[in-house]
Amino acid sequence: MTDENLLELLDPVLRSGGARAEPGEDYRRPPIEILRYYRRELRWNRVPILGRALSVALVSRPMQEDDTGGSSYLRLLERSAMVVGMRYSPWQAATIGLTVVGLTTAPIGPETEANLDRALGSSLRRYRVVPLGLIVVNLAQETLAFALRAGPDRLFSEPVAIADALGDRLRRLVDPFPL
Fold first, then answer.
1. What is the C-alpha separation between 49 and 137, in angstroms, rounded?
2. Which residues have a Cβ under 8 Å from the Cβ of 102 and sit 6 or more positions away?
3. N or C: which end of the chain has fewer CB within 10 A?
4. pTM of the model
């Protein structure tokens, strides 16, 4: 599977949910390459400015390959949050629900999901995003691992939709059952 195949797989799933695809970009600071953004506007309150939110899903590739531990997933999430915060102004939406699909060349093993869950559960108070999904894909292995969180009032459907679409095509490695 290639990057293009992955984007072709995600496009119809996210567009059917009302998201618009936007071209990606490269950043030196933070060092990350965004292949594509998917943005969907939400309204969860009648208050004009405070009631608006964005659901943003992005497909990214780190510019340099970090170590494969949980800290590399936290860095991926922080870099993505920083980029999304710069791209979408607070006037567009006070809150952004963020789903990150990160491409990696590091092997995905049974412990990867526990590391993703720890990274997703960490505090991102410095950023305007609410992390809802962290999905890591190794295209060479055709494997994935993910950690998901429920958004407020279940308004943010992108994390589950992406995990379902990729789960149909890619293998998922989970911890073996203890005997």
1. 36
2. 60, 61, 62, 73, 76, 80, 134, 135, 136, 137
3. C
4. 0.90
